[in-house]
Amino acid sequence: NPQPDAAALPLVPFAGRQKAFDHLYHRLTDPEKTDTAVILGRQHSGKSALLHHFHPFFDESFVSVYVPLRQLPLDNETAWLKALTRLTNTALTARDFSLARLVDKPPTAANTRLWFANDYLPNVLAVIRRQRQLVYLLDDADALLHAVGAGRLPDDTFIFLHELLNSQTQLHLVLALDAAAEADLPRLSPLAGLT
């Protein structure tokens, strides 16, 4: 359980997931793959732990950002993208990247999506440099599905995320989804497919 003390996480034994990490590595390095990797499993089967252990397994060419969706404000797109920005900045700082080159102008509620896609994200990718990949690890992706289904996030949220992946070759998404939400996988289209 990664929740009680994240600082002690490196000391916790973690084994038996080599095949899962190998599969993820293949997915993230395959230039033909344009969709998102989805980790599907029962509750308490280790999906969150797998995401938490992403950084120790992958080399320095991958910059990961753990995104605990259940803990984020998914009430509207502005709040969600600003929270994603804060998590990204924290991850960059933890890896000793300078945030000085990031765009200083804050977004407005009307232009948050455009600001994130056209200003913020390209600057983040420039900060980590071309040889590195930025990987968003979206935990409890069913929370995102619920927010879209309830109308708190736009209906085209998954299309927007898919377009980000297509426009930024350094960007990747990994989603952890409870097996109870497996029937909702088609709603992730075109971001992720059933294959």
- Element pattern in H and E: HEHHEHHEHHE
Number of helices: 7
The coarse silhouette is: globular
Detail the poorly predicted runs: none
Number of strands: 4
Helix and strand content put the structural class at alpha/beta
Radius of gyration: 16 Å
Major sheet description: 4 strands, parallel
What is the rounded distance between the termini?
29 Å
Mean pLDDT: 85
Strand content: 5-15%
Share in helix:
25-40%
Give, in spatial order, the strands making up the sheet with the most strands: 1-4-3-2
How would you characterize this protein structure?
There is one protein chain. This protein has helices at residues 18-29, 47-52, 54-57, 77-94, 112-128, 142-149, 157-167; strands spanning 37-41, 62-68, 133-139, 171-178. The protein is α/β, with parallel strands linked by helices. The radius of gyration is 16 Å and the shape is globular.
